[in-house]
Amino acid sequence: MMETSTSVNKLNYGQQKQEMIPADDVEPQDLSFYENIKPQLDSLAKNPSDTTISKILAYSRAK
Fold first, then answer.
1. What is the pLDDT of residues 40-53, one digit of tens each?
2. The whole model's pTM is what?
């Protein structure tokens, strides 16, 4: 029997952490815009519409 394993790429973990840290050079105007739309973006991620789900499923079947 052959045993296989997948190596863990530590670079991927570093990139995930970097994405969570806000950039130092963000303009205050951009930051306030993001803060204003953040609740809507969060609700989309948690409660996608039926149309969004249908599009995702259609795309996955096409591949």
1. 888 877 778 899 88
2. 0.35
